[in-house]
Amino acid sequence: MKVLFSFLAVILIILVATMGAFITNLHYVFGIIIPYLAFAMFVGGFIYRVVKWGRSPVPFRIPTTIGQQKSLPWIKQNKIENPTSAFGVVVRMAMEVLFFRSLFRNTKTELREGQNGPELAYGSAKWLWLGSLFFHWSFLIIIVRHLRFFLEPIPFAIQALESIDGILQIGLPAIYLTDVFILVAITYLFLRRIVVPQVRYISLPADFFPLFMIMSIAISGVLMRYFYKVDLVAVKQLTIGLATFQPVLPTGIGPMFFIHIFLVSTLFAYFPTSKLMHMGGIFMSPTRNMISNNRMVRHINPWNPEVKVHTYEQYEDEFRDKMKKAGIPVEKE
Amino acid sequence: MAPKVKLPKPGELSKIEFKNPATDWMDTPVEFKPGTYCWGAKEKDLLTLGLPNPRQWSPADEDWKIPDGWESTIIEGIAERLSKYRSFKVFMDICVRCGACADKCHFYIATGDPKNMPVLRAELLRSVYKKYFTKSGKFLGRLAGARELNMDVLKEWWSYFFQCTECRRCSVFCPYGIDQAEVTIIGRELLNLVGLNIDWIAGPAAACYMKGNHLGLEPHAITGNIESMVDDIEDITGIRVNPTFNRKGAEIMFVTPSGDLLGEPGIQTCMGYLMLFHELGLDYTWSTYASEGGNFGFFTSNDMAKRLNYKIYAEAKRLGVKYIIGGECGHMWRVLNQYMDTWHGPADFLEVPVSPITGTVFENAKSTKMIHISEFTADLIKHKKLNLDPSRNDHLKVTYHDSCNPSRGMGLLDEPREIIKAVCNNFYEMPENTIREKTFCCGSGSGLNASENMEQRMRGGFPRANAVKYVREKHGVNMLANICAVDRAALPALMDYWNPGVGVTGVTELVGNALVMKGEKERTTNLRFEDLPGKGGNE
Q1: A301 and B342: CB-CB below 8 Å?
Q2: Residue B241 and residue B165 share a domain
Q3: Which residue in B80, B93, B228, B469 has the most chain A C-beta atoms within 10 A of its own C-beta, making it the best mutation to test that interface?
Q4: Same domain, B294 and B344
Q5: Using CB atoms, which residue from A72, A120, A310 is nearest to B463?
Q6: Are residues B366 and B474 in the same domain?
Q7: Which sequence spans correspond to the domains of chain A?
Q8: For residues B254 and B269, what is the distance between their CA atoms, to the nearest angstrom?
Q9: pLDDT at residue B538 in the model
Q10: Looking at the partner chain, which of A52, A106, A304 has a beta carbon nearest the beta carbon of B173?
């Protein structure tokens, strides 16, 4: 049901896109107005969300320590997973953001019947890590590759990236590795949500929707490149126009382009309202981005509240006789 | 109260069904099965603490006696905490429900109840957050994973936020570091706004507030208990140690959880402290006012935790000590390490801790001026300042349980191991995925070590117990060492249930047994008055 709803929602979006693509009068809306709007919503929404997070203070320094603390000089500190320097935190964050360090730790727990009763076993489980890594890196490379539509002349780095991505030189135009990877990875991410009972149980429509969106964006991109080709010169005219804020609408681009760009626009507009904001959020996570120097440097809580306490005087007043009998020194005899 | 519930046999408890309910989690009502939940907080304790809605109530009743308008109390409570805690806001927004945390939680592993997956436990609150604080939740409702707050939801929160021990294991595996402990802490704060705590937390917190410690030991009871330990030490070693109480001008104040003052094997750990400090000639004092290192306020609300924690620095200041040593306790050290200085610092009336024996300067505690007994002892051992006879522990095959909080809220991993290796000849580690930063909870942390929820405790501790079983079968391990008072209270029952024959000990008890004190008589028993190995015959 949750899957179906998300699927139908994406189908509906594709239908709208198709309508836009085949009605020439709407090309200006679909090719220029909607992409601008979506981009504005993405940037504005993204900043809004990050600022909103940032406006809440971090009252306590609560890193999750995943290794030995800094204490005695001969005990080897884990300087990355229990960092006491800003550099350590930077490395820790880089490992998380670039290589998904924590996901790499993933294990799979199994309960089995051993010789002497039940046994819990913890096996290696790297598929989620691998799938996510391939998905995110492919996505990033694809986005960077697309910069060639917005830059003239095309920077060397992007050309180089393209040629590495197409290094297999299969087909014409050459198949990009990242196109294959992203489709495989996203299929895996989708299938595990359906197949693994626990993951299916926790999944929401909001988990399937972005998967279907990204899948349809990738498929429409592939279709456009290999099957329903579009006029690349015209596309570039349009995209450069967008990038330079001098929008032009060349004729004869081909309908698949409008479908693709509408799907991308939808995803961009949706992004800041959704869980996809983990892209920004990971940088803000206090359990990962804080220096673990709690006992060395005092952390300030801007709203540190006044609280009611039970003072020593109150305590002694209640127990003075008992204290004196027990030979415990008191302030007032 | 309700009749005593029979605890199922281990064979029954370990039959765990990982089947999801036929209905979606939002449509699956919460069940209150005797043996799996704690009693509700008592009226008198909430009155003592000045917490909202004091009344007698029982979770088994249909009517929880929550005042009208509670929904807005909770919603306003959420709004306030969103504006105060970035952690809460970010964690509510960025979870992608990848499920990496699911089988990392001891309660999920041992119950198979999907709402015990950290992700879903957070979703219980996240769904309400979405409904009232996000546009998508407001407009799309359930499609966006949002739902209305109602009494069923509130009861579900109470059930599941008191089935989380705030152990942070999920946070280690989460790609964004989302910490369910943080969500549970805030969830419990919200519940407390309408008077929903558990007896086992509110009771000790109230006792701690008024009398200085969770057990409610009055000053003469503290000195009395310690005096009887002193007598036992004299019987065993021939040496009379001489602790002082509330003594002004001592160099060091010692604070330990009150669990070390009553009942085995806590008291043996405490005897270990007394013997060690005496042997060193340490100029230290106990305090009957700051007689609790632990902090059950931390399981209630951050304000409550701050109120209970106040005594430690206040007393150190009153007594004019130079610094503080803290005993073996788990959540105590999460609080001391990550909260105390922020609440009550700067501790500028104290000095940076320096070991009077080795001269080591504890730079790692230069702001809080409070060090862990394991740091202190490991330093002594490294400098060979202790005369140790590890063969006195030769009848023990020891494994070490990392407590959740010193592991994942501090990183105190190698210090206790250095000590154990110096005082025992037989030490074996449990499997890699169950120790150090990946350690499994005892199943009774964060105030859940009551007796009425014994079934749930035995479940929660199952992954820990199973790892002990592994080293027991492989190496014959018969002693589970730890540095936590809740462990010492909770693990004996857990071992009796899953691994009968495995004992539980504090690390400092092992030190006390191995410590050869100046002028001591030939010892024939250990601190538990059990015969020492090889001391019966003539070798």
Answers
A1: yes
A2: no
A3: B93
A4: yes
A5: A120
A6: yes
A7: 2-325
A8: 14
A9: 43
A10: A106
- What is the C-alpha separation between B51 and B41, in angstroms, rounded? 11
Which chain A residues touch B179 with a CB distance below 8 Å?
Answer: 62, 64, 287
- At residue B506, what are phi and psi to the nearest 5 degrees? -80, 150
Tell me whether B335 touches chain A (CB under 8 Å): no
pLDDT 10s digits, B518-531? 999 999 999 999 99
Q: Please indicate if any CB of chain A lies within 8 Å of the CB of B174.
A: yes
A168 burial (CB, 10 Å; 0-12 / 13-18 / 19+) is exposed
Is A202 in contact with B82 (Cβ distance < 8 A)? no
Give whole-number Cα distances, A192 to A100, A127, A128, A155, B288, in Å.
18, 10, 9, 38, 57
Same domain, B444 and B415: yes
Say whether B248 and A329 touch across the interface (CB within 8 A): yes
- Do B208 and B214 form a contact (C-beta atoms < 8 A)? yes
Do both B147 and B248 map to the same domain? no
User: Quick one: average pLDDT of B501-527?
Assistant: 97
Q: Considering only alpha carbons, which residue of chain A is nearest residue B360?
A: A72
Site from B15, B49, B86, B483 to mutate, A interface, most A CB atoms within 10 angstroms: B86
> Residue B58 gets which letter from DSSP?
-
Start-end of H helices in B424-481? 454-460, 462-475
Is any Cβ of chain B less than 8 angstroms from the Cβ of A266?
A: no
- What is the average pLDDT across B115-132? 97
Task: Locate the chain A residue with the closest alpha carbon to B343.
Answer: A304
What number is the average pLDDT over the span B49-65?
96
Residue B83, domain CATH:
1.10.1060
pTM reported for the whole predicted model: 0.95
> Which two three-digit tokens encode residue B131?
């409904």
What is the tally of structural domains in chain B?
Answer: 2
Task: Find the radius of gyration of the CA atoms of chain B.
Answer: 23
Query: B408 in a domain, yes or no?
Result: yes
B209 and B188, same domain (yes or no) = no
B345 shares its domain with B391: yes
Q: Tell me the per-residue pLDDT of A191-224, one tens digit each, with 9 for 90 and over.
A: 999 999 999 999 999 999 999 999 999 999 999 9
Contact call for B176 and A119, based on CB within 8 A? no
Q: Do A273 and B136 touch (CB under 8 A)?
A: yes
**Domain extent at residue B95:** 42-197
Calpha distance B88→B83 (Å, rounded)? 9
Please write the tens of the pLDDT for every residue from A40-71: 999 999 999 999 999 999 999 999 999 999 99
User: Does B95 score more than 90 pLDDT?
Assistant: yes
ipTM of model = 0.95
| DSSP per-residue string spanning A144-201 | HHHGGGT-SSPPHHHHHHHHHHTTT--TTTTPPHHHHHHHHHHHHHHHHHHHSHHHHH
Beta carbons of A122 and B434 less than 8 Å apart: yes
Q: Is B361 a domain residue?
A: yes
**What's the confidence (pLDDT) of residue B535?**
66
Name the residue with higher pLDDT: A117 or B334: B334
Amino acid found at A1: M
Q: What is the pLDDT of residue A251?
A: 87
Provide the CATH number for the domain formed by A2-325 in this structure. Answer: 1.20.950.20
Across all residues in chain B, what is the average pLDDT?
A: 96
Q: Are residues B240 and B277 in the same domain?
A: yes
Q: Which of A109, A309, A328 sits opposite B109 (nearest CB)?
A: A109
Local structure of residue B37 (DSSP, 8 states): S
Query: Which member of A58, A75, A78 has the closest CB to residue B415?
Result: A75
* pLDDT of res. B406: 97
